[in-house]
Amino acid sequence: QVQLVESGGGSVQAGDSLRLSCAASGRAFKDYPFKDYYMGWFRQTPGKEREFVAFISGSGGTSHYSDSVKGRFTISRDNAKNTGYLEMNLLQVEDAGMYYCGVKLSAVTHPTMVRDGARYDYWGQGTQVTVSS
Length: 133
Hints:
The termini are far apart. This protein has 1 helix and 11 strands; from the N terminus they run E-E-E-E-E-E-E-E-E-H-E-E. Helices cover 3% and strands 47% of the residues. By secondary structure, it is mainly β. The model has no long low-confidence stretch (mean pLDDT 96). The longest helix has 4 residues, at 111-114.
């Protein structure tokens, strides 16, 4: 099992920045280290499906972003700390929502596949981001 805990959400003004963290732990890492898992960030607002925001490969060498956040958000990870991050700059009202991190034990980096939330093995409980104009 893998446990994921997101943090860093909050209420900000449009144009502000936030940095989300996703701390991973669990017995599963005894068999396969954190670097063997790819990570994604998704967000969800009431009445809407969870949508892809960003992806990073296990090594950190490959990343993908949704068009709506490209150039404003940066995903990264520190495998020594079993933690992933989402740096969000120039936040817009449309960026508000519950942000979830997910991981999957896989080396796949295909942009279409990693945008599919159904492929992820584990999810955190989410951290809320509110952006006001």
